[in-house]
Amino acid sequence: MRLDPIAAPSPARTLGLPALALGATVLVAMGLALIAGADPLATLGLIARGAAGSKFALLETLNRATPLIFTGLAISVAFRARLWNIGAEAQLYAGALVTVVIGTQLGLPGPLALPLMALGAVLAGALVLLGPVLLKTRLGVDEVVTTLLLNFIMALFISYLLEGPLKDPMGMGWPKSPALPRDARLPRIVEGLRLHWGFGLALLSALAVWVMQTRTTLGYEIRATGLNAEAARFAGIPVGRVLVKTALISGGLAALAGFSEVAGLKGNLTADLSPGFGYTGIVVAMLALLHPLGVVVSALFVAGVFVGADSMSRAAGVPTYIADILLATALLFMVLAILLTKVRVVRG
Amino acid sequence: MTETKEAQDVVLRLSGITKRFGALTANDAISFSLARGEVVALLGENGAGKTTLMNILFGHYTADEGTVEVFGQPLPPGLPGAALAAGVGMVHQHFTLADNMTVLENILLGTAPLWRPGLGRGGARQRVQQLSRDFGLAVHPDARVATLSVGERQRVEILKALYREARILILDEPTAVLTPQESDALFETLRKAVAQGLSVIFISHKLHEVTAVSSRVLVLRHGRLVGEVATAETDRHQLAELMVGAEITPPAPAEARPGATLLKLEKVSTPARGNRTGLRGIDLELKAGQILGLAGVSGNGQGALADLLSGLETPSAGTMELTGETVTSWSPRDALKARIGRIPEDRHTTGTIADFTLTENAVLERYAQPPIATSGWMDWSAARRAAEQVIETYDVRCPGPETRIRLLSGGNMQKLILGRVLEAQPMIILANQPVRGLDIGAVTYVQERLIAARDAGAAVLLISEDLDEVLTLSDVVRVICEGRLSPEFPRGSKTPAELGQWMAGQGFDDAA
């Protein structure tokens, strides 16, 4: 057996295989429900209803999707340039930290504070990724290692701050930061409904990234660098500088996830602000085939699976980690589907 | 020849070999036989089906139809190793030797257990030395392969096949990496082999070698056997026509009228990188309206010189002048700004981005300038027009400008690169192996375009490992060897044999 490359895959192949992957994922989910002793079809129905069956459920899904859109975009921008940013988690926390510091320590009025918080967050996230990318372009240090390890450094740094200088004096001893003042929070999109403008900002960011990638010279440079850095360098594209710019954008986008969670949802910083949004962003970006608009769709899917599984678990008694297994199988099947659109398995 | 005699003498017979890859028929009912003691040349352009045929013979592919017989026994299909066991040996274009082992170890590799060192080595050594003497394959059995020249490595490959008692030798483009002298030595070896009753299949696209060494020529075109002629009854011209199916006229450039010096290197050195030879204090002048051909065995500093002119490499010593001004900052972008058009050696990895469309590839070197882009925004319709211009002017055969370039043939890919370079109206053109791997039609096209650019006043540096190509196109020839340059030889002042001596390193005064 060997793999033969397919020069021009048919539309049936490029669309059919991912659909097949999704179908296979659903089958696995039903099998898991069966093992857990529940009715497979009913379990699926409960997940779907829990994710989008009511106004409350839908808003919950959109809220959960918001940080995933940001981290998914951060990953997709970086991966396009073959910059393996595994540190979206650290960049997210850097953004959240600066958001809280500016919002609580400077005492600025809301209309001034919010843009400044966002801007500060973006800069902080960009700065966190700048170190690894400079080490990569200057010294050839593997960014997978540096960005991954920075996640732990950042987590411990945040813990230290929450136990020390940033600890809320009124927090009854809990390790959390003081809360943002009312007017330094992102407003709701519709008054009375639990959905904040962070979601709007996420959609806008996806659109902006898409325009950047398809319409600007920077987008062209990023794609050229990712597809063939040697040819890009030969053609006069400053590959090192392109990677640095990519890193600044990627880090900034991941940091906006932190800004949006703090200023839109939580109101303060805790060490458990992110249940791994930075890592899940990799899944989101891969499922979207790194397409910025696809990131929105896949973030909604991933958020829906999490929210739906939560609610299903309460009703049907199937453990929630079915959601993690579901996403993992979805990703594996999708990677396989992508491979099979590019190559054909041939005998002999 | 009577029928019974022929039947006795046939050592290899292919009958009706057909192999399809999807819609493409790579081999279409190919039948031929090889007799004891003859050299058959297999001639054909790239993509004519030579490699597929050999892969079927060696069991890497299974033929859809047809059979292979070796010494009268049918060969089981799709079983690599069966051909080897039956006495067929192949010398690939890219050698399969372990660099860190000795010649003897390489020859024994796979035939004798290596974990019992010394066992039977004495006998093996004697056999190898005997074979060396019998076939004129001089190489020391205890030399490390890493220290050998390309020609010597090829001898080791042939010895390897002979040691395994191959009675049929297949040589795939064996002269591509040799100096003329080394090629002559190889031909002498083949004659000795044939005299001892071996049979040889010689795969090549160099017509003069084919006529020099073979007794019979098989011509493949588009997967079919289109001609089978006795070498004595044909000439190069007829073979070339059979090969491409059309009449060929090689380019015959008019007398050059060299103008001002556009690029001048003085005592320029570049560092060696890994296995790649650097430049060692070379002087070079490129003049307007002149093609300077650089001959040499591959790996003697051509890469470093090409990188230097491309902007990828900067001199570690010496000075570089462009139109009389000393260059201080140097990068690919600076090279483009200085109007140096670059045709890179490897069009797949350096010249194009495989998953970019023709449009995206056509603007690769000027994507950031108007009209393709203004203040950071791409104008895709302008880029598309630029691509269409190149496609039309340079006859790039493709489904359209939005096709990914990986779907194009090598010749069409090269035409796109050529168009991209020439449309920018370069002052200096670096053409590094511009026609390697192209079919004859595309070769002629690219060469004529380069001559036309010369006539329009461009200075051309042609780097090629094909001495014939250098001699056909160049107004002035220089030879590169171990990072040094020979003096300039005007057109026609040196024979290929004399240049071959320079290629082998003779004549350089600092023979260090």
UniProtKB/TrEMBL annotation, chain A:
CDD domains found in the cross-reference section: TM_PBP1_transp_TpRbsC_like (cd06580)
Gene Ontology MF terms in the entry: transmembrane transporter activity
Membrane-traversing stretches: 12-36, 65-83, 90-108, 114-135, 144-162, 195-213, 279-309, 321-340
Superkingdom assignment: Bacteria
UniProt subcellular location: Cell membrane
Keywords tagged on the record: Cell membrane, Membrane, Transmembrane, Transmembrane helix
Keyword field contains Hydrolase: no
Any one GO CC term of the record: plasma membrane
Membrane topology: Multi-pass membrane protein
Keyword Nucleotide-binding found: no
Pfam assignment, any one: BPD_transp_2
Signal peptide from the UniProt entry: none
PANTHER family, sorted: ABC TRANSPORTER, PERMEASE PROTEIN, GUANOSINE ABC TRANSPORTER PERMEASE PROTEIN NUPP
Record-given protein name: Nucleoside ABC transporter membrane protein
Automatic annotation (TrEMBL), chain B:
Residue ranges of domain ABC transporter in the record: 12-247, 263-507
Record-level Gene Ontology MF annotations: ATP binding; ATP hydrolysis activity
Record Gene3D superfamilies: P-loop containing nucleotide triphosphate hydrolases
Organism lineage: Bacteria, Pseudomonadati, Pseudomonadota, Alphaproteobacteria, Rhodobacterales
Xref: InterPro entries: AAA+_ATPase, ABC_carbohydrate_import_ATPase, ABC_transporter-like_ATP-bd, ABC_transporter-like_CS, P-loop_NTPase
GO cellular component terms attached to this protein's record: plasma membrane
Keyword Cell division listed: no
Subcellular location per the Swiss-Prot or TrEMBL entry: Cell membrane
Highest taxon, organism lineage: Bacteria
Protein name: Nucleoside ABC transporter ATP-binding protein
